[in-house]
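Aim 2 progress update. The chain analyzed this quarter is reproduced below.
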Amino acid sequence: MIKRFFFVLLVGMMGFFSSKGEAKLDPESHAMLSNPAYAKHIEIQCYLVTREQLAEVFENEKLQVTQKSNKELYQKNLFLLVRCRNRGKHVAFGTLKCLPPNCGSPISIDITRMWANQIDFNDYAIYLGSVIVFSNNELPQINYEWNCIYTM
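Predicted structure tokens:
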């Protein structure tokens, strides 16, 4: 019994610390809960923000974020701010891949449970450091896509 417990624990830990850094469901649960078409019901906003902007967002959840230009963000420590809101009728969760400018590879973000018909956003912040290499008046472009999305 103890050997079985440690084997299950070891297998669970291997999945938890996978090289991709993503939480995966077992194949049966994935097949039952996976719903890629539901992505149209999830409102996603991605921003590069300064520490001061991030503090304002967490002080006032209803704050509308304004994306600053590359020139305003140049040589500053930045955070990737991802805001998600579920506008559909089902509880949703999953993994979102975001690609901020000059980061090389996408950043996977585990999106936790979003209740149906949400009013407020779920906010996620990841420290990026100084990633803006051009001091121009353009807005940074952040691409994203769902790696997997599940509904219950």
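Residues 1-22 have pLDDT under 50 and may be disordered. The chain is about 25% helix and 35% strand. These observations will guide the mutagenesis experiments scheduled for the next reporting period.
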